[in-house]
Amino acid sequence: MFTVTEGAAKEIQTLINQYNNPQLALRVRVLAGGCSGYSYDLAFDDQLQANDLIFESHGVKVMIDDRSFKVLDGTELDYVDTMLGRGFTFNNPNAKSSCGCGSSFNA
Question: Is 15 exposed, middle or buried (0-12, 13-18, 19+ CB in 10 A)?
């Protein structure tokens, strides 16, 4: 399971609307790299691949390839907007540790 909070869904929908393409979904991937081993990658995509899993929360679709899903299973994507900054955050129960800057993790 992969879930998106209501706040993250609103931000995703706002971004999709800027592209004027209602077929877009958020593609979430895990890439090797970063100082802790893995990093998250977010992009918009309208091409479903054979190994993609589709999740829908609060009206937005998320595509995750089966390899990335092994590390993302159980994750919640959130969006925060605070005085210190704003952006998407991952609450990933599979992440054993993360780097100081928060951009990469170890699973």
Answer: middle
